[in-house]
């Protein structure tokens, strides 16, 4: 890729978390940023996540703060908590509209959009970006059963990049797993919708404490991603 090509990353936190969880690895966000800075002239890196605002402590906040100070533009909105027909508490927060608006507004300033999501609802957005002359790469995976990327989204993209190919470049060092020490927190998949608006139930996983433990981690600290 040309170093003069202007690009932007658009990360659907919930969808990316679901994909990396299915593949069994965690993302090192510092390495992720460096990887795409090396590929293109990266002008923006957006990260979208929903947050539960009425809690005394949000397990996602440390990661969000780290991303905000380390090259990412974080876009959040309050997640909605509800009780389903079985009496189970769930949390829902869809960021598709926010991502689409940002992408369309930035379209005149970029040549290449990198979309980290397998959600088929983004097919129309990809098509719209292409009409504006923007090349689109979709990053997700087909190495799971079922595949994490919608077939129509994959077909619409100019390029499909499987997350499996990125593991050696952006995966977190497994040795960092031993650094966990904070109290339990909700899983990153628990405070946002997945594709097609469905939400996972809450679960408990260890959260991270210091920047070296959560800033470069996909897992416990992010309810969407």
Largest sheet: 6 strands, parallel
Mean pLDDT score, rounded?
78
Shape: globular
Helix content: 25-40%
Please state how the strands of the largest beta sheet are arranged side by side: 3-2-1-6-7-8
| Total tally of structural domains | 1
Per the CATH scheme, the topology name is Rossmann fold
What's the layout of helices and strands?
Elements: E1 6-12, H1 13-23, H2 29-39, E2 41-51, H3 61-69, E3 73-78, E4 80-83, E5 89-92, H4 96-106, E6 112-116, H5 123-131, E7 135-140, H6 151-156, E8 159-162, H7 163-170, E9 184-186, E10 204-206, H8 211-214
Parallel strand pairs: 1-2, 1-6, 2-3, 6-7, 7-8
Antiparallel strand pairs: 4-5, 9-10
Please, could you describe this protein's structure?
It is built from 8 helices and 10 strands. The two termini are 27 Å apart. It has one domain: 5'-nuclease (Rossmann fold, 3-Layer(aba) Sandwich). The chain has 225 residues and is of the alpha/beta class.
């Amino acid at each position: 890729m040309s170093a003069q090509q202007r690009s932007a990353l658009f990360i659907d936190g919930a969808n990316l978390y679901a994909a990396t969880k299915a593949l069994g690895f965690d993302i090192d966000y510092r390495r992720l940023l460096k990887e795409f800075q090396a590929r293109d002239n990266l002008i923006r890196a957006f990260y979208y996540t929903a947050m539960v605002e009425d809690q005394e402590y949000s397990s996602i906040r440390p990661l969000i703060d780290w991303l905000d100070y380390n090259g990412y533009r974080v876009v959040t909105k309050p997640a909605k908590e509800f009780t389903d027909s079985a009496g189970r508490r769930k949390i829902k927060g869809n960021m598709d509209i926010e991502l689409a608006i940002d992408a369309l507004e930035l379209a005149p300033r970029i040549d290449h959009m990198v979309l980290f999501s397998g959600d088929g609802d983004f097919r129309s957005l990809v098509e719209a970006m292409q009409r504006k002359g923007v090349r689109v790469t979709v990053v997700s995976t087909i190495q799971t059963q079922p595949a994490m990327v919608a077939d129509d989204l994959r077909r619409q993209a100019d390029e499909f990049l499987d997350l499996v190919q990125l593991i050696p470049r952006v995966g977190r060092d497994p040795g960092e797993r031993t650094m966990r020490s904070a109290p339990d927190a909700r899983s990153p998949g628990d405070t946002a919708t997945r594709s097609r608006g469905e939400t996972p139930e809450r679960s408990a996983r260890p959260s991270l404490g210091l920047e070296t433990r959560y800033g470069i981690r996909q897992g416990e600290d992010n309810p969407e991603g």
